[in-house]
Design goal:
By secondary structure, the chain is α+β, with helices and mostly antiparallel strands. It contains 5 helices and 8 strands; from the N terminus they run ααββααβββββαβ. Helix content is 45%, strand content 17%. Helix 2 crosses helix 3.
Amino acid sequence: MKFKPLATAVSLLLAFTMVFAAPADEQAAEVKRMSELASLMQLGDQMKNSVGEKTDQMLGKAMGLLGVPYKRGGSSTETGFDCSGFVRYMYETSVGRLLPRRADEQAAATDKIDRNELNPGDLVFFNTMRRTFSHVGIYLGDGKFIHAPSAGKTVRVDDLRAAYWTKRFTGARRVKETPATDSPSR
């Protein structure tokens, strides 16, 4: 019976510790989110200095879709995106280029480039399903790319240098330039 007040006191102490520890954890998570946001904003500034206007607009629009849910076969902001649907949507709505629907078809319809030639707006491909071009994302610069990763996740930015992506990287491609149609032919 002597231990009941002691046990109650210890329980209360533990409860207070948990209550007051939560805000610190939340603060740490918020600091981490703010740091990641600052890093992405800095990356955005770097992109503006290194890409054309249409590509810059596309990448800015893509960053605005961070957090849109993954949906297999999805290709819109309303339904969500899968990887190739996201890439196709971005190129169609921002640059006016209609890419094929599947990642392997997108690889076939674009120009192969070396990994060290990557520029913002280029496509990066991965083997995530035992197929050479089973996943695709859009290169942002500074080793980062944006993509719709998989079920249960959302559009996000990842680092090509992360072990998971390095192991699965299968190639880089550049979307072919289309001739300017601004000037009428005579």
